[in-house]
Amino acid sequence: MVNDEMLNKVRTGQGFIAALDQSGGSTPKALKLYGVEEDAWSNDEEMFDLMHAMRTRIMTSPAFTGDRVLGAILFEQTMDRQVEGAGTADYLWAAKHVVPFLKVDKGLADVADGAQIMKPIPGLRDLCERAVGLGVFGTKMRSVVQLANETGVNAVVDQQFEVAKEIIAAGLVPIIEPEVDIHSPEKQAAEGLLRDRIATQLDALTDDQPVMLKLSIPTVENFYASLIEHPKVLRVVALSGGYPRDEANERLSRQHGMIASFSRALTEGLSAGQNDDEFNTTLGGTIDGIFAASIT
Q: Fewer beta carbons under 10 A from the terminal one: N or C of the chain?
């Protein structure tokens, strides 16, 4: 059963969603950007310990609160760990009033028809049930569109909604993320195909099947206004997609009603070598900037 207080915060609250869900393949890069080199660990367990320490430092920072951060997307290992003696999801909601989400996809399939659908997600139902038990509100899953190929776009969107219905049935709210590659030579045309296919799938949902959308910042201002206003959509959030943070903020600020869900842009400028004052000041400035871009 979806937590009504969390639901109301996601639907009406001001702020953005922090993406703290780097997983196995992207973890070394994220740690390197944080100033932790690969010689700092000797196996995956030690690597994930270091990653959890970084995420814990972000989540426990006085700059990280529900006043500006609506939600946080977690990697499965992060959900299963603790922060200050509490389960991560419980800590986020009880201590920070930040709504917890869980990344559930297992990565991308090979490119076909100018797009990458998700790999199969074995054990999804069990994972969702475990997430519900740990206090998680919703999920996130990512596909990628590279070209304006209708077959590829439809495959991505149709798979996303098919899996989303399984997630809804398990008592969670899915964030559907069909990313359009910001470097695509056909980005604007791909966004047109994507918007139309998403609208078709949204219209087929029932009133008790709310979803969220996570989309690349569109080329045309307010291009996703119809999706933002759709009655089945709780919120439309934007991924930074590789834009530097200042550029991502500037582009997002021109999209009315779209809020951020940044990952790399959120941790940009943070370093393991910073003392707590430096770290919290840097994170606070970042959060202020992303928040400002998200309330336009």
A: N
Chain-centre distance for alpha carbon 223 = 20
Q: Which residue in 177, 179, 191, 232 is the catalytic one? A: 177
CB 225 within 8 A of CB 184: no
CA separation, residue 161 to residues 3, 155, 166, 230 (Å):
22, 10, 9, 15
Q: Of 9, 103, 214, 232, which is the active-site residue?
A: 214
Known catalytic residue: 250? no
> pLDDT tens-digit profile of 43-61?
999 999 999 999 999 999 9
Element (H, E) at 278: helix 276-294
**pLDDT tens digits along 191-219:** 999 999 999 999 999 999 999 999 999 99
Tokens of 11: 């639907």
- Backbone φ and ψ for 16, nearest 5 degrees, come out as -145, 175
Tokens (6 digits) for 282: 């840097």
More confident residue, 29 or 66: 66
Q: Is the pLDDT of residue 24 over 70?
A: no
Please state, in angstroms and rounded to a whole number, the distance separating the CA atoms of residues 109 and 269: 32
Is 187 considered catalytic here? no
CA distances from 177 to 18, 231, 292 (A): 15, 18, 23
How would you classify the pairing of strands 211-216 and 173-180? parallel
Residue 25 pLDDT class (50, 70, 90 cuts)? confident
Name the residue with higher pLDDT: 21 or 147: 147
Short-list 269, 271, 273, 272, CA closest to 286: 269
> What's the pLDDT at 282?
97
Question: End-to-end CA distance of the chain, in Å?
Answer: 32
